[in-house]
Specification:
By secondary structure, this protein is of the alpha+beta class. It has a seven-stranded mixed beta sheet with strand order 1-3-4-5-6-2-7. Helix 1 packs across helix 6. It has one domain. The protein is about 35% helix and about 30% strand.
Length: about 180
């Protein structure tokens, strides 16, 4: 994985994807540091030798109608060949004097449609229980994928904290969702 090239931004519509897990932090006085966080994150992912992982910068719109009205943001979309229905969107954006750093684990509802056809009961149980329909290998791969992205982003944020002479022990490391990664 090389450094990011803003000219290579791909459009991506999110209207169908569902958020399963997330993590975020506001870094005080971190404004203007998003590319540093992205590039450090990519380097940490590369150094981890995680198999079959890709990352690309995408311009995300929440749906076609909101996209028409210009509602969009840039995210780094991280995918793995083993789990095509899952994506992790990483964001580092200025928010006043802060740098707002987040990731979201999403699942494409195409997967939910397949599950729905196999049994309406599984579908109606809700997103947090859907992982129960996976076999042990799928669960293991999803947890390892999300955890590797989480740890790489944490390392990038810790590096930024150090550059800003801030205490990285103040970082909340636990995600919010059904995986509860820390």
């Amino acid at each position: 994985m090389e450094g990011l090239k803003p000219s290579g931004i791909v459009p991506k519509k999110l209207s169908e994807e569902k958020v399963l897990d997330s993590w975020s932090i506001l870094v005080e006085n971190g404004q203007g540091k998003s590319m540093e966080v992205y590039n450090d994150f990519l380097n940490f992912i590369k150094d981890s030798n995680v198999p079959e992982i890709e990352a690309k910068l995408v311009k995300v719109v929440p749906g076609w109608l909101k996209g028409l009205f210009g509602k969009e943001r840039e995210y780094l979309m991280v995918t793995t060949e083993r789990l095509k229905d899952y994506k992790i969107y990483v964001c580092a954006r200025d928010y006043g004097n802060y740098l707002d750093v987040q990731w979201y684990l999403t699942c494409d509802p195409g997967f939910f449609s397949k599950v729905f056809k196999m049994g309406a009961a599984i579908y109606t149980m809700g997103l947090s229980n859907l992982i129960l329909s996976f076999d042990i290998f799928d669960q293991q791969d999803l947890i390892a994928f999300a955890t590797s992205v989480h740890h790489s982003l944490l390392k990038a944020v810790e590096k930024l904290f150090q550059r800003l002479n801030q205490d990285p022990s103040k970082i909340n490391r636990k995600s919010r969702g059904f995986l509860g990664i820390s």
